Amino acid sequence: MYKPYTTPVIRASPNIKISPPRISKWVIFLIKLLGRIYLFIFLGIARIVLQGEKRFFGAFERALRGDSRCILAFRHPNGGEPQILTWFIMFRLENLAKRAGFSFAKHPHALFIYGYDVLRWGGWVARFIMPGLGAMPIHPTKLDSQGMSRIFKAMKEGPYPLAIAPEGRITYNTEQVLSLEQGTIRIGFHAADQLKKEGKPYPVEILPVSIHLRYGVWGKMCLARLMKRLDRATGFRNRYKNEGEPSFTLRLRNCRDYLIAQNERWYGIPVDEKQSIPERLERIVVAALDKAEKILGIRMVKDEIITRLNYSRQVCWDRIYLPERETLNGLSQVERSHLDLRAGEAWYAGRHIDLVNFLWYFRSPLPEEDTPLHLKIEYAQNLWIFAHRTMGGSYVVQNINIFPRRVIIQAGEPINLTDKLPGYYQDRKTAIQSAMDDLLKTYMGCIEEVNKTD
């Protein structure tokens, strides 16, 4: 199966056709049949544990009974969270809830919101599975009235919760919440407002969920293999054979510093020994984004890094898959070749953009020898992604999974947006920011709760 993120793009393609979202019994059957195998083979998931279960069960019970509307706001640090939650909600949640004394009016399900680019890099499998689960695509950087109408309709009609990642993308960091986008809160407030105006004052709840990974003895063995691959990729393996292997922390520092230095050299950034690691990384982010924008012929100096990043990625995909064209038949050879050239340029610009997408979140401190295993593994995996992106790797092909691993789904206290409507009517900006602060506080509480019980 050809995927446009594995090899350079040399030809433009017409826009992909997307089936309208609907819940397909055939797709659900396939996931029931193959989902657990997929989670183990591709994500290394051996076990899934739910903590804060009464909050999770209660939010789903109210929503499925039609007494509330729910948005499951999940953190997205690793990349596999939507797959994990989909399988868990559809095939584990109901039995666990029954044992705890909760009764669902319907078989549990969640409608995931995702960006259109997922269907572009995900191939035919994503284009078959995701619409069949009722998942709803949306353009994150464009005015998408059709997508938003679909979302608000699902919120008003219920009963299934929406599932949204407020961080907006993979963040590579389970212990810190570096940024939250306002879209989730805005959708919730708008739905609460519309329901009230229609005389249906169902409470609209945000259910915060944080997902964490933990490892056993096999994790240590897999980490040792990953470190050898890192040492080999960065050229330190042969040196260690002659000089002896240093401590784990020093090996990580050597790899990190080497990758930073290589990017500084390739982007023509003067080395300043007085600068801290975060400052050096920030300069690489700016240089790489400038390079991508120069290739694409766009310029957005005054906007924030994330805004520029999102827009540049959208431009790249729109030049590879042409949104205004359903076919490329009938073009002259010159016209077709020009579109192919622009698609090729966009693919290479995307390599710089994907480096920026990772480095913006690469803020974790260097692990010490007594750092918990899961944080050592996370940092080593992030260094591998750093090396992979430095070598021109894409957004998708990245992690070397550490097998097997235990997943902890930690549910936080639901946030009732309907109760906050009076403040929303008085000052929308302040009310949205207040709800964002509550969400951030709840996420940090989830992280603390997991670390205490681990």
Characterize this entry briefly.
With 454 residues, this protein is α/β, with parallel strands linked by helices. Helices cover 55% and strands 11% of the residues.
Structural notes for this entry:
The two termini are 41 Å apart. This protein has helices at residues 25-43, 53-65, 81-91, 93-99, 117-121, 123-132, 145-157, 183-197, 217-233, 237-243, 248-266, 277-296, 305-320, 333-359, 373-390, 421-426, 428-453, and strands spanning 13-14, 45-51, 69-74, 111-115, 136-138, 162-164, 204-215, 321-322, 405-411, 415-416. The protein is globular. Helix 14 runs antiparallel to helix 15. The longest helix has 27 residues, at 333-359. 55% of the residues lie in helices and 11% in strands. The protein is an alpha/beta fold. The strands form 2 sheets. Strands 2, 3, 4, 5, 6, 7, 9 and 10 form an 8-stranded mixed sheet that branches.
